[in-house]
Amino acid sequence: MHGYSVVLAGGGYPWRHPDWLGRPWEESVIYEAHVGLCGGFLGLAERLPDLAAMGFTTVELMPIADFPGARNWGYDGVLPYAPDRAYGSPEDLKYLVDTAHGLRMSVLLDVVYNHFGPDGNYLSRYAPEFFRDDLETPWGAAIDFRRPQVRRFFQDNALYWLTEFRLDGLRLDAVHAIEDEGWLPELARNIRRVVPPPRHVHLVLENDDNCADLLRAGYDAQWNDDAHHVLHHLLTGERQGYYQDYADDPAGKLARSLGTGFVYQGDIPPTRGAPRGQDSSGLPPTAFVNFLQNHDQIGNRGWGERLTALDGVDPHALRAAVAALLLAPQIPLVFMGEECGARAPFLYFTSHGDPELARAVREGRRAEFPAFSGSEAHPVPDPNAPGTYDRSSPWPSPDDKDASAWRDYYRALLQVRARLIAPRLMGARTQGAAELGSHAVRAAWRMNDCAVLTLYLNLHARDEQALPAAQRPSAQATLVFESMAGAAQALIDGTLPAATAVWMIEESDD
C-alpha cells in the first residue's frame, strides 16, 4: 500500500471454461460474501460446490480492490485495479471465477467508484485534478467526474474486471455520491458496447436516491433498501434511525414495494423533509434486488447483530420472511451465514497501521451510527482490533443441527424457485398488492406463461389475519410453498395464521 507495486502481464491464465457466457439475470439468486472471512479467493472457491448444490446461482464479492492491512470491508480501497494481496494472487481470483463458471455460477463484484480510502491513496499528490475542491462526500473529497480522463479511468476499470477476470457483472456502490448524472448511463452504454450479447453481463446499483430512470438506462437492477427497511421493522419493531420512515403503515409500505418496487417514489420520508425517489411502477420485479440482511444492514449496527440474534424476532416470522424473499419475483440476495442461521455478528473491521487514523475511525464509527450503537459503558467494538474481525466469522460447527435445518430450508425453497419461479420471470408483471392487516399483505404477479403467482404473508408473531372471501385463493390455485404446515388449508378456510407465508399459483388455461 505504501511500498512497491507489482505490475503483471495480462492474460496467461489457462481458463478451463472459456466458452462460459453467463446466466440470464432472471435466474439470479445472489450470495453476498466477504472474501477474507471465506478464506480468501481459494477458500471461497472451496465453498462454491455447496452453495451451488443449495441453489445459489450467483456469488457477489464485497470489494476486493487493494486496501490497507489485512482486514477491511473493502470500501477503503485505494488501488482499483489491484485485487487485494490479503485474499490471494490475481491468478487465485481467476481460479475462483473459473471454478464458479464450472458450477454454472455467475460472479459479481462490488466496486467503489464514489471515493478512495483514506490510507495509502497517493492519487491526490500526483493528480490533484482528479478530485473536486468544491464538493465533499461522507468519505472525503469528491471525485471529479466532469473530467473525461476520470470517466475513462473508471470505465476502463469496469471493463478490466469484466474482461481480464471474466466477472459476470458489477454492483456499483453508493452511486448517489457520484456528482455527474450523465456518467452512469454513459458507463452502462460503453460496457454493453464492449461486452455485447450473447454474453450476460449484469449491472446493479446501490442508490439511496431511488432513481428509477437509471433502471431504464442500461442497469439491470438496484438494491432495494426500502424493501429491507420495512421488512426489518415488521420483524423487529425497531423505529430508530431510518426505520422511522417505515414505522407508519408498514404493511401498506410493504405492499407498495412488492407491487411497484420502491416505497418512496417522490414521497417525503419523515426523517428527511424532502422528496425521495422516482416512480418505479412499470419496471419489472427483477429490477429490484431484495434482501433481509446484507453487509450494510448488519454491519452498520453498533454490535453487528443478525436477525437470528435479535430478541424481538420471532423465529417462525423469520422463516416466513425467508420464504417470501426466496420465492418472490424480485431477485433475492442472501448475506453469507444467513443460509445456516448464523448468530455471529458481522462487525465493521479495519487494520489501519496509523494509530491516529485507527482512533479516528473508532470514534467516527461510534458517532456515525448513534441510533444503532451501544452505550458508553458498553461501547461498540473497536474496528481496528483483530478480535473484531475474528468474531465476525459466521461459520457454524459441522454438527450444528440448527444450522443444518436452516440449510435444508433454504435448499428446499431454492429448489422451488428454480423449478417454478425462475423459468417464468422474464416478462412477469405485478397484478397488484394490498395490505390485509397491520403485519399482513397479499401480492400477486402474472408470470410470463400467464400463470398467477400469489403470496400471502403475515409477519405478526401472535395474531392471525382473517381474510374476506374475495382475498382467499381460488379453487383452481395450487400450493407452491407454506412456511408452516397447515397454513394453506387455514388460508382456504379464511384465516392467514400468524408468522406464516403461503405461496399459491393458478395456472393459465391458455
Automatic annotation (TrEMBL):
Against CDD domains, the record matches this protein to: AmyAc_GTHase
Please give the Gene Ontology molecular function terms for this protein. Answer: 4-alpha-D-(1->4)-alpha-D-glucanotrehalose trehalohydrolase activity
Q: Where in the cell is it found?
A: Cytoplasm
**Sequence intervals crossing the membrane:** none
InterPro entries per the UniProt record, alphabetical: GH, GH13_cat_dom, Trehalose_TreZ, Trehalose_TreZ_E-set_sf
> Is Hydrolase set as a keyword in this record?
yes
Q: What protein does this entry describe?
A: Malto-oligosyltrehalose trehalohydrolase
Gene giving rise to this polypeptide: treZ
